[in-house]
Amino acid sequence: MKKFKVPHTYVIVFGFIVAAAILTWVVPGGEFDRKTVEVNGQPREVIVEDSFHFVENNPQTWQIFSALFDGFVDKADIIVFIIIIGGAFWILNESKAIDVGIQTFLKEVRKLEKFKAFRFMGVDNIVITLIMLVFSIFGATFGMSEETIAFTIIFIPLAISMGYDSIVGVSMCFLAAGLGFAGALLNPFTIGIAQGLSSLPLFSGIEYRLVCWVIINLIGITWILRYAAKLRKDPTKSPVYEEDEYWRNKESTDLNEVKLYTPVAAWITYGILAVFMVVYSVINPSMVLNIGNNNYPGYFFPIVSGLFIISSFIALRKSIHFYILNLLMFTILFLIIGVMGYSWYVKEIATLFLVLGLVSGAAMNYSANDIVKHFSAGMKDILTAAFVVGLAGGILVVLEDGRVIDSLLYYMANSMQEFGKIASISMMYVIQSMINIVIPSGSAKAALTMPMMSQFSDLIGVSRQATVMAFQFGDGFTNMITPTSPVLIGVLGIARIPYEKWVKWILPFMIILIVTGWLLLLPTVLIDLSGF
Asked: How far apart are CA 441 and CA 193, in angstroms?
């Protein structure tokens, strides 16, 4: 008997496209009327209450093949983002700066093992926990999602160097941000829009959501530490041990073999950047960071620029490698400033990392042709990840063109008509989770579902705040497993983790998180909570 072989990721995603096309044949076509309303100062397109009507559906046939093209067009921003990130980080990899940084970091961290307290807790456990908490906070406060694609290339080599696997590396940033996104505290893209559409005070009910965030992260970090402990005993237990050969080969740099030096070109790039930052700080000295519903004015850019100028001077006196690492660190700080102060998205973030790559190449005294050669090699290396994002985007295209998405939403909402409070909030949770499979965008799903869900919650006596939390959990958890999420597919592509192996690994964890989410919803209808 021939042994079953798990299909390639492309085959699996294309299978979802075919399944979506079949739905367009069996589900009646339908549409809601839509209108534009202002939510927290931003225009949002929402459905009109009781406006659903059946329309002639558009069964998809040959479109399962053209969906690849349309998926690339629809997800073009994420695809280009991945390609630019791949090219930029290849230049950094060629400089060996990341290798030097990881080896130096681990060397210093290992020194902490001489202290009994650190040895008892485990230095690796502390490192993993702190990194995950940082990214969870990012996900909970400003909705970090797409940005984790860039960090994947940093944390996978770190995890491999620590003796773990690419799954641990992905978990440090992507999964941690996903935990924060699900337990959102001040996320403007989910909580902000959902509460605005439900006519609730912005970010109200934060006290109980903070409790939920703590519980979700406690479970998530414990799960990862438990998995890491298993790998520490036997690295071959990793489901991606064979795939990680790629990363283990790249991680073979010996710190003792790296020549530490600083070329003149590095000082020139430093001078140019310092002048630019000083001039920009004089022209635009102050700015406002937006965290949730709070605004914090301050001289953030001049302060960060000053720190960069001082720290880069110190790094350059040591080695070009530490200067490039300093560039990377401050790129991340400027990314945070840009996202929270100027509402940057993938275009601006990709541009920032492109400049990082170009400046790093120039600092290494690479010629223009060498920079292009390394950048092209990085784009080629990452192309598979970009391709699968376009393929996954075709799933939603098929459902939209088949005119069945609104029908699916309508039937799901009607299924709750005869339920009590607990059953109703449970069904809302299930429906939001199912919708997230076909519409992974939190803001789009909030605009689509919350006007109807909030009105329905009034009829059955469930608070609108509870309905928002059902949306929050339903939107957050399944982002870490649904094949329609361009961020998940992009991260897995960069990590070289086959989708089917990721699903097999994360499915038990997803079940635990989904059950936890349901249990955390029960107090919203059984107990008088602040803000509910």
From this structure: 12
CA distance 215 to 220: 9
d(CA 440, CA 437): 6
Query: In three state form, how does the secondary structure of 305-363 look?
Result: HHHHHHHHHHHHHHCHHHHHHHHHHHHHHHHHHHHHHHCCCHHHHHHHHHHHHHHHHHH
pLDDT of 279 strictly over 60: yes
The whole-number average pLDDT for the span 148-159 is 88
Q: What is the mean pLDDT of the chain?
A: 85
Instruction: Estimate the crossing angle of helix 76-95 against helix 97-110, to 10 degrees.
Output: 70
Residue 225 tokens, joined: 């530490």
Amino acid at 455: Q
Expressed in percent and rounded to 5, the helix, strand and coil fractions of the chain are: 75, 5, 20
- How far is the C-alpha of 500 from the C-alpha of 12, rounded, in Å? 8
Structure tokens at 172: 């440090």
Say which residues have a Cβ less than 8 Å from residue 166's Cβ, sequence separation at least 6. Answer: 156, 159, 160, 240, 243, 244, 247, 495, 496, 497
pTM beyond 0.70: yes
Question: Radius of gyration (Cα) for the chain, nearest Å?
Answer: 24
Mean pLDDT of 12-24: 87
The pLDDT of residue 190 is 81
Separation between Cα atoms, residue 243 and residue 224, nearest integer Å: 19
Question: 442-460 vs 421-438: helix axis angle to the nearest 10?
Answer: 160
| 405-414 helix and 442-460 helix, angle to the nearest 10 degrees | 30
User: Among 448, 528, 512, which residue's Cα sits nearest to residue 480?
Assistant: 512
pLDDT in tens, 77-114: 888 888 888 888 889 878 888 777 777 777 777 777 77
Q: What is the pLDDT of residues 114-146, one digit of tens each?
A: 777 777 778 888 889 989 998 998 888 877 787
Using DSSP bridges, classify how beta strands 287-291 and 294-298 pair: parallel, antiparallel or unpaired.
antiparallel
Q: What is the pLDDT of residues 474-524, one digit of tens each?
A: 888 998 998 888 889 889 988 999 998 999 999 999 999 999 999 999 999
Helix (H) or strand (E) holding 288: strand 287-291
Residue 214 CB partners (closer than 8 Å, separation 6+): 183
Nearest to 472 by CA among 209, 234, 133, 243: 209
pLDDT band at 41 (very low <50, low <70, confident <90, very high): low
The answer to whether the beta carbons of residues 185 and 213 sit under 8 Å apart is yes
Q: What is residue 83's three-state secondary structure? A: helix
Q: How far apart are the first and last CA of the chain?
A: 59
